[in-house]
């Protein structure tokens, strides 16, 4: 089944889950910015993902060819492909999630990248559709800094595909308006209760917190975890988010205009 079908399946699953067990029952289904977020899901998850996927493949091939004569790359010797398939999936998940944690941290700490990431953090309500609410430049950054190292590690394409699909489901889960308690597993796996504090509009706990995508483990290891278990943020967004336009065309060009 192609990726876009898995994305559609994940979206429908969380539409249902949010109706059955909402964490915030008073949150409206037809909330402000919902139309924008559905567009971002279609554009980033289907069209732009396809184009940047080809770009990442070409860039990976170029980098591998550039480094192969001087560096003994694992990909040259089939690297992860030597492992059992499930072990490949586990290794790719851990490595890719650590890389995503690093990229996500850069999006918050590098001013140039933060301008683009503000689009994602301008969401005032949280549900599954916010997972793909991001500026098109973010996918270029992620593809370049994430998929190129993964390609150099080798591994079966099917194992990489499974991890990508799993991460998509988990990203929907992290942003979903669902009441799920992971219990002791929350020290390892990210969840909607912890990730909600990543979208906190205040500076409580610092503005750079909870960067984990699938695994919360990295935040606890690197000291960026912040999660008051007894409450939720008073408001979602980011400090100064009133600067973000509400209409889609201006959101797409907002970072470029403000940086200029």
Overview of the structural elements:
Helix 1 packs parallel to helix 6 and helix 3 packs across helix 6. The chain contains nine helices and no strands. The longest helix has 34 residues. It has one domain. By secondary structure, the chain is mostly helical.
SSE map:
Layout: H1 3-20, H2 34-67, H3 85-109, H4 111-121, H5 136-152, H6 157-175, H7 192-198, H8 217-222, H9 248-259
Helix pairs in contact: 1-6, 2-5, 3-4, 3-5, 3-6, 4-9
Task: Supply the key terms.
260 residues, mainly alpha
The arrangement of helices and strands along the chain is HHHHHHHHH
Q: Helical element count?
A: 9
Strand content: under 5%
Largest sheet: none
Distance between the termini: 43 Å
* Rg value: 18 Å
Give the fraction of residues assigned to helices: 55-70%
Q: How many strands?
A: 0
Summarize model confidence as the mean pLDDT: 88
Structural class: mainly alpha
Poorly predicted regions are: none
Q: How many separate structural domains? A: 1
Shape: globular
């Amino acid at each position: 089944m192609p990726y876009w079908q898995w994305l559609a399946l994940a979206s429908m699953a969380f539409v249902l889950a949010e109706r059955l067990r909402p964490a915030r029952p008073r949150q409206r289904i037809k909330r402000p910015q919902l139309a924008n977020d559905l567009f971002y899901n279609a554009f980033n998850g289907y069209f732009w993902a396809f184009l940047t996927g080809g770009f990442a493949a070409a860039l990976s091939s170029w980098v591998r060819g550039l480094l192969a004569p001087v560096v003994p790359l694992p990909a040259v010797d089939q690297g992860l492909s030597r492992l059992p398939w499930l072990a490949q999936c586990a290794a790719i998940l851990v490595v890719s999630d650590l890389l995503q944690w690093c990229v996500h941290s850069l999006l918050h700490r590098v001013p140039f990248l933060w301008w683009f990431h503000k689009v994602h953090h301008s969401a005032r309500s949280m549900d599954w559709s916010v997972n793909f609410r991001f500026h098109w430049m973010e996918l270029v950054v992620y593809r370049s800094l994430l998929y190129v190292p993964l390609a150099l590690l080798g591994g079966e394409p099917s194992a990489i595909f499974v991890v990508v699909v799993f991460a998509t489901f988990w990203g929907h889960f992290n942003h979903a308006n669902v009441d799920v308690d992971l219990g002791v597993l929350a020290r390892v796996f990210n969840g909607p209760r912890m990730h909600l504090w990543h979208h906190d509009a205040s500076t409580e706990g610092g503005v750079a917190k909870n960067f984990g995508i699938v695994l919360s483990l990295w935040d606890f290891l690197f000291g960026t975890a912040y999660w008051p278990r007894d409450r939720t943020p008073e408001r979602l967004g980011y400090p100064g988010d009133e600067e973000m336009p509400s209409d889609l065309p201006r959101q797409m060009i907002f970072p470029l205009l403000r940086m200029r």
